[in-house]
Amino acid sequence: MEKGKSKQKTGRKRITFTDEDYLNITKWAGLGLSETQIADNLGVGISTITRNKNRNERFEQALKKGKAKAIEQVTNALFNNAVHDNNTTAQIFYLKNRDSTNWSDRQEVNHNLDLKSILTNAKDRLIIDAQTTPTNEREQITNIKQIATDTNE
How wide is the angle at C-alpha 125 spanned by C-alphas 121 and 130, nearest 5°? Predict the structure, then answer.
């Protein structure tokens, strides 16, 4: 990687990646290194990685190629564990991800509630309760005395 200042502009150092850098980026991504770890290996910040992914097609392709290789290796290992080693966990994981329609822990339940009728019924119950509730203190006291008398009998 060559670092040098551009004579036209002042500010950020221009970073040019070499062919060896691109090969290393692909290798490191293929080994499962994160973009932060790749940045550390290159001696640059994560912002440089992000910027180059967006601006530099070759850089982006080097990352994608390495990541695709890593995913392929893990997929093959998972498949081998599921099929050849009879690893039940690998089998379940594979089926849930490859055929989630038939192999899923998630159960979808749809509830249709008519909120308007629920609120109307609740309102009607409140109105009926209000009509049967005594309106003055004397009636309330009489009702309490009657209840007490009924329980003593």
Answer: 150
Q: Which residue has the tokens 């150092």?
A: 13
Integer angstrom CA distances of residue 147 from 90, 143, 153: 68, 6, 10
Q: What are the pLDDT digits (tens) for 36-69?
A: 999 999 999 999 999 999 999 999 999 999 999 9
Count helices and strands in the chain by DSSP H and E runs: 7, 2
**How far apart are alpha carbons 21 and 69 in whole angstroms?**
18
Q: Which pLDDT does position 19 carry in this prediction? A: 95
Burial of 41 (0-12, 13-18, 19+ CB in 10 A): middle
Handedness of CA 92, 97, 99, 102 (dihedral sign): positive
CA torsion, points 95, 98, 102, 104, in degrees to nearest 10?
70
